[in-house]
Amino acid sequence: VSSEQLENRYRLLLRAYPSAYRRERGDELIEAVLASEDTARHWPSPRQATALITGGLRARRNPTRGRAGTAAWWQGIELATIALITYAGAIIAGQVYASLSILIVDGYAVSWLAQSLAAASLLAALLVTLIGGYRRTAAGVALTAVVVPTLLNPHPLIDDWTHVEWWAPIVALPLILAGARRPATVPQFSRRSRLGLLGLCALVIAATVISVSYTSIFDDLGRPFFVVLALALVTVVYGFIDPRPLIAIAALALPGLIATVATGLNNGASIGSFDPLGMGVRPAIVIVALTWVAIMTRREAQL
Amino acid sequence: MSQPSRSPLREPSFFILAALQAGPRHGYSIIQAVVDLSDGRLKLAVGTLYSVLDRLAGENFIEVTGEEIVNGRARRYYVLTDAGRCTLVEEADRLAQAASVVVRPARSTSSIVGYAT
Predict the structure, then answer these.
(1) pTM of the predicted structure, to 2 decimals
(2) A-chain residues within 8 Å CB-CB of B13?
């Protein structure tokens, strides 16, 4: 009975592998793992369990030597653009919610709502085109997502450039255009992965709106901090297996860094006007994340 | 001695290829052979073994040579390909060359040490 229990528990762990892999190799892995284990065991050993889970997640990504490094970078860039637009979309969604919550509808609130709604619609369209893989359309929508909300601002360019959400599509645009140089050997995300990404992006945006609705509107406006922090932690842990989301983390730090510099310049560029946390932590995030990606991709290129 | 044309093999890959030198082996048999060859230093977990096997097969260094059913479960046998054997020999040469620097120091190295002392 104990060996049956053990086998069932190992089969549960095998669910980390893609279903096609399990169908083809599942019995073989079970045979090897049961032969390696003490038959009196009831539970999988932590060493075998960890190796099966990480092996399964790697098999899902299917890295093959030589192309692995290149594929990770290109797919990471694609994830980075999606993450940037989701981040901006989450901030704007919070703003739409906040502007709708303001009971006194004066001229400023109406124009703010119009700007936020236009930005939200364009970012949503951009997200769908990006996840759908329509690169050229996405480039056009990204440009529109910068220009239209800027023109709708009663004071265009006075303070736009100090906002993270304004910079996000601008940072995303060269990454979208760079996609034209993506080698044909780099595999595209599967339809299932794209649907999963769309769901995750919607979840992040929804979680941000909920977090804004449960806290002081203006305190958290434009700062879906805890959602991003939680996702970042998951990404860092997952980064030990898959470096691609770390490229997205690095990209996410860029709009904030540029906006911090812009705010400092707006405030007269005195030393005290620069946010030291934003100026110090964000470049560190970019450097650490990209160094980690470089180490991981180099390791994966080795047999 | 031929110069290695590729990056060095990582230890698990090297020992797995070495384990397959003697002939076809199935998964658990490879794990046991790797333990023996490495004097018990390297105990591959099954998930790790199959990740490496997949990548070695992707490089055409190994291939599946046969399959049998044991206890109602499929058991595959893996074998070295010619490319895998070449890579293994090349890597062994590289390691031997590196080891010789330490085991039998070159005359020039000795003279430098002598000069320093």
Answers:
(1) 0.73
(2) 303
